[in-house]
């Protein structure tokens, strides 16, 4: 390879600087192509020479581009180093050479003589985003195009939420109140219960289920706006189930005891529950004496701070990675590189989401409502087993799954099938998670379902509570890192594949068939 490159360079130098060129310049007869006696130019000879020159140029092209790329990389690297030095006020970096002696200058500028040891100067980290912006653009870049896009059509979101909230406040409460007050008086209580249960199911599935989903699809809401609507849809459905599930046994007990009073909660109690940071209904909750409004403001400020940082993570670490994917086929090599490059932004997104929602957002509403029990999460980061991680990561959702999925399953099957009950809980959780992601991203790609239903469930049984050694905590974090990288990589690849490889007339199968496996990005 090197010998071929040297021979090409010699041929190029000979063709440009050799004695034949001087001879040709002194002899005009050799400069022009041979002409026949009639004075016309031989076209075939000209075409042959042009083909020869084109072939030589094609052979030299890769080596020329390689040389240019090497010098350009050195130039940019030295320019960034010099900018950092000038920005910090230091003078450790001196002259920079672009072409000749770049490596020598770099070594001299960045390393002091061994006898002097390490020299400390005032300088900033290159990962400081503001400094990077200043170096790249010569100014502070504070653009929020990604946020504006993600939260687009926000008035539609507000109107949809208001409709969901008003229907959730009125329809389930009215149906339950009408059923409770007429149950003991009805001559056919079973039919009476089935009638009201049917209409409640119609509300849950038809109005609260299909309604918001149809709106986000019909109005083609962007991802973050879709997340707000779908997450609120799921939250309200879980709250309605808890309200009915907790109060129906009380009414049945009252009717069995032939009590004159019907235990129907007040509208204020139900309204408080709809805003309270819990999914388990109670008539009354422990309350704090006062509201610390400064604490509320601080929590909401931290939510917006996390949102801003999340935007920077996606803008700096995710968008450049997936936006500049070249034309290369889907392979194991591409997939592994993508997963490893996605681990850092994936874990940052996980931690930011945890802190912004489970800590700041829920604590802000708990403070405004004087809600006393604020155990929204436990020390999941110290878990040595996945079973403990699932119990402590999100206590709010875990309590709902434990009381209304796991325990009700055991009650229905007389506590004989604990493993089957746990499997049912995993299935419900995996289906709901996959539904939310599919609607929010506008495509079905069951990566989370596979990880959650198969790997997550397997880890729950294998890495159980009997594992107490610290090494299991390391393994838990390692698998968590890898899982976040896989999720971000697969879903981001599919998102950009559907953006750059749209179909003119997509069928139903096109929405569920992975586009990233066959798409070739063209930039």
TrEMBL record:
It is a multi-pass membrane protein. The keyword Transmembrane applies. It is found in: Endoplasmic reticulum membrane. GO terms for cellular component: endoplasmic reticulum membrane. Its main location: endoplasmic reticulum. Pfam families: MBOAT (PF03062). Keywords: Acyltransferase, Cholesterol metabolism, Disulfide bond, Endoplasmic reticulum, Lipid metabolism, Membrane, Phosphoprotein, Steroid metabolism, Sterol metabolism, Transferase, Transmembrane, Transmembrane helix. It catalyses: cholesterol + (9Z)-octadecenoyl-CoA = cholesteryl (9Z-octadecenoate) + CoA; cholesterol + hexadecanoyl-CoA = cholesteryl hexadecanoate + CoA; (9Z)-hexadecenoyl-CoA + cholesterol = cholesteryl (9Z)-hexadecenoate + CoA; an acyl-CoA + cholesterol = a cholesterol ester + CoA. Belongs to the membrane-bound acyltransferase family. Sterol o-acyltransferase subfamily. This is O-acyltransferase. It comes from Pipistrellus kuhlii.
């Amino acid at each position: 390879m090197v010998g071929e490159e040297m021979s090409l360079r010699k041929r190029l130098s000979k063709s440009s600087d050799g004695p034949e060129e001087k001879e040709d310049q002194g002899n005009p007869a050799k400069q022009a192509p041979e002409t026949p006696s009639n004075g016309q130019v031989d076209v075939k000879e000209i075409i042959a020479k042009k083909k020869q020159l084109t072939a030589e140029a094609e052979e030299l092209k890769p080596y020329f581009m390689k040389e240019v790329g090497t010098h350009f990389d050195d130039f940019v690297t030295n320019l960034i180093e010099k900018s950092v030095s000038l920005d910090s006020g230091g003078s450790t970096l001196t002259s920079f050479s672009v072409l000749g002696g770049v490596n020598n200058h770099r070594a001299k500028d960045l390393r002091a003589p061994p006898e002097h040891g390490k020299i400390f100067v005032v300088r900033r980290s290159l990962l400081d985003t503001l400094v990077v912006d200043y170096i790249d653009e010569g100014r502070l870049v504070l653009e929020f195009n990604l946020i504006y896009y993600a939260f687009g059509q926000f008035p539609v979101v507000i109107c949809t939420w208001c409709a969901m909230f008003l229907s959730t406040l009125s329809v389930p409460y009215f149906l339950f109140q009408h059923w409770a007050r007429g149950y003991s008086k009805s001559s056919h209580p079973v039919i009476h219960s089935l009638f009201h249960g049917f209409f409640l199911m119609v509300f849950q599935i038809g109005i609260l289920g299909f309604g918001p989903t149809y709106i986000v699809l019909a109005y083609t809401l962007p991802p973050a706006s879709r997340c707000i609507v779908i997450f609120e849809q799921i939250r309200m459905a879980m709250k309605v189930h808890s309200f009915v599930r907790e109060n129906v046994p009380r009414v049945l007990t009252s009717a069995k005891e032939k009590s004159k009073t019907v235990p129907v909660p007040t509208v204020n109690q139900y309204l408080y529950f709809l805003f309270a940071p819990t999914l388990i209904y109670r008539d009354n909750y422990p309350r704090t004496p006062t509201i610390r409004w400064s604490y509320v403001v601080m929590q909401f400020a931290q939510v917006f701070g996390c949102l801003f940082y999340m935007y920077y993570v996606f803008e700096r670490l995710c968008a450049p990675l997936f936006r500049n994917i070249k034309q290369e086929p889907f392979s194991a090599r591409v997939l592994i590189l993508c997963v490893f490059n996605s681990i850092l932004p994936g874990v940052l997104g996980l931690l930011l989401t945890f802190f912004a929602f489970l800590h700041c957002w829920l604590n802000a509403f708990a403070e405004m409502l004087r809600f006393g029990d604020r155990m929204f999460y436990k020390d999941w980061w110290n878990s040595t087993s996945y079973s403990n991680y699932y119990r402590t990561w999100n206590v709010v959702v875990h309590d709902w799954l434990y009381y209304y999925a796991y325990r009700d399953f055991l009650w229905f099957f007389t506590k004989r099938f604990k493993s089957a009950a746990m499997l049912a809980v995993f299935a419900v959780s995996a289906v709901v998670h996959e539904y939310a992601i599919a609607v929010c991203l506008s495509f079905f790609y069951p990566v989370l379902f596979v990880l959650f239903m198969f790997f997550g469930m397997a880890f729950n049984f294998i890495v159980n509570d009997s594992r107490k050694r610290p090494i299991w905590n390391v393994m838990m974090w390692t698998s968590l890192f890898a899982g976040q990288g896989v999720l971000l990589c697969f879903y981001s690849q599919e998102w950009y594949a559907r953006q750059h490889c749209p179909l003119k007339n997509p069928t139903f199968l096109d929405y569920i068939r992975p586009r990233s496996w066959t798409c070739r990005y063209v930039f």
